[in-house]
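Bug: token stream looks shifted between consecutive jobs. Job 1:
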Amino acid sequence: MNTTQELARYAIETRYQDIPEPVRRAAKRLMLDTLGCAVGALGTDPGIAVRRIVQRSGAVGPASVIGTGQKTSIATAAWANGRLGNVLDMDECYKVQGHHAQAALGTALALAETHALDGRALLAAFTLGFEVGVRLGNFFSPRVTVDAEGRTRGWTGLVGPGQGVHAACTAAARLIGSSPVELAHAFGSCAQYMVGRDWSRQWGRDVDLGTLKYADTGWNAQGGLMAAWHAREGVRGVRDIFDGDSYAQVFQGVVLDPVAMLENLGRDWYLPETSIKFWPCCRWIHYALTALDAVLRRHGLQAAEIDAIDLHSFPMIPYPRFADQGDPPNLVAATFSFPHAAAMVALGVPAGPAWFTEASLGGLAAREMRRKVRLLDEERAYDPAAWGLADKVLKVPSRAVVHARGQTFSAQSDFALGDAWDGAPGFAEQDVFDKFARMVKTLAPYSPQWEARSRELIDAVMGVDDMDDVRELTRLFDPAR
């Protein structure tokens, strides 16, 4: 049995009961977080666009667009929910290697609802989709590091989008009854839906990144679904896609490591290691933001007292978007701006869609605070030992220095809030619940009862494996209920 076939066999034949209880608990928590991110995005400009596109599609069907009351086709719902999950850039991130949860859940939820499947089927599909996504990343490239010249290594434009498509494909294949052979064929078709590297040559070099990021995560969800459907109908892509050099020929610089893809298959679980994001911005920013948040909290510093903020971190610059101190032209630009994220934390703006209001993007207080933020290199930024390579974790040594009250206050952090490894700033399951409750508040204008329903929603998701019919869950997310 070759690498492609072995991964497909694992993804299809692993049963719900084979997933350890701590992994299942982490998967439910991640599912809740992903749904919260999707709901929180609905009132943003990109979120409104998603709802309008669903309406324009003209498709009426059995699958729900989460938090909207819209019912549409399986494919459209998979796209919409996958897209919404990533809009705020507040969704999980696996070691800055990629996002897997939104595409896997977008597809799995649409299929499970349509076919009235039980919660165990949904949870297992979501979990195995995530696991395949991470293992694909291990196959494509080593963990992210920085070389002596400050260039990123171990990450390509292929990784994140590719993982999302395969994660969604795996989830879909399980729920439509695919065999391991059919999923192996579907993996070959997934290559046809992947975003390549060309975008990365320009991405980040312009202050205005546009309002669609480097990969439409909804397209990943829909692409994975289509690959699984095609394979069920006898249509296949490249045979044994992970056993040849197809990717190496198309994408220069990609490291293909089939051993890493299959390492400890069925014994090691990656989902519990993913990072929960407590701020709506690129994960690279969270390390310096964690240090800044610690300084402000420790010393009770108020915005009016701050004269300057120095952030010493991984210099993913020369990309000007990360360091530009001007008004972000749109939500996407804001999610990649160190000065904007630091300004929002310093001003005490609640993490979530509130970071992207007109006042937050272009208001005087936000503008003045962004101008006080300076981005500098951290002295240990290029030290592989400082990045935790030997410990198989991801550290990004970062420091925040705040000048206020005629004094200098500082804090250092190797990890970001939300990281799941020993030594990282602690967060509890309740913190994830609180984040979810904050996200669902955004729908209160649509339904006065919505905010009060957050506890019911949390209990439903955390108990999803006891549900006989996933439609019980999707009905709870209908704001008109």
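Job 2, same session, no restart:
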Amino acid sequence: MEQSQDPSRRKKLNQYNSYLKYSGLAIQLLAAIALCGWVGHFIDKWLNYKYPVFMLILGFVGFGGMLYQIYKSINDQ
């Protein structure tokens, strides 16, 4: 037999799920920017560039990719 949950409990669970979803997206955003920046820094160091060209480019690519991921996630609701 299926037990029905009261509406306030169901509302709390939905609220916690959305907190977890968006905090996970924030962590992914930071991790993507950090990883792309680190890879770009490694490439710049390997090529002996004076300015962090690849670090900036890959950092912006990671940021843009994660913004697209967040956009898709928000539209899926």
